[in-house]
């Protein structure tokens, strides 16, 4: 059983605290004064989103192939 002291408004304390730190970091990134830093972060984010989309497509294709040609077929 989970101790109630590990909860904040019914949510896991550690998840809430980590999420708060993430939001603070995101605001720090957005307000960073170095020229081009935020733009570079956005460009890297775009690369990572595209890579994740490609990985999801590969996984989806693999599931379909396994369903069609997998074990027992």
Largest sheet: 2 strands, antiparallel
| Spatial strand sequence of the major β-sheet | 1-2
Order of helices and strands: EEHH
Q: What value does the Rg take, in angstroms?
A: 21 Å
The number of E-state strands comes to: 2
Mean pLDDT across residues: 92
Q: How would the global form be characterised?
A: flat
Distance between the termini: 44 Å
Integer tally of domains: 1
Structure commentary:
With 73 residues, the chain is mainly alpha-helical. Helices cover 70% and strands 5% of the residues. The protein has one domain (9-69). It contains two helices and two strands; from the N terminus they run ββαα. Strands 1-2 form a two-stranded antiparallel ribbon. The mean pLDDT is 92.
In short:
The chain has helices spanning 13-30, 37-69; strands at 7-8, 11-12. With 73 residues, it is mainly alpha-helical. The protein has one domain (9-69).
Notable characteristics:
single chain, 73 residues, mainly alpha, two-stranded antiparallel sheet, 2 helices, 2 strands, 5% strand, flat
Fold blueprint:
Layout: E1 7-8, E2 11-12, H1 13-30, H2 37-69
Antiparallel strand pairs: 1-2
């Amino acid at each position: 059983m989970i101790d109630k002291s590990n909860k904040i408004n019914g949510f896991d304390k550690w998840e809430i605290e980590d999420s708060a730190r993430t939001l603070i970091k995101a605001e720090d990134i957005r307000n960073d004064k170095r020229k081009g830093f935020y733009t570079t972060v956005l460009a890297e984010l775009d690369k990572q989103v595209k890579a994740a989309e490609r990985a999801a497509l590969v996984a989806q294709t693999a599931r379909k192939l396994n369903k069609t040609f997998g074990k027992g077929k």
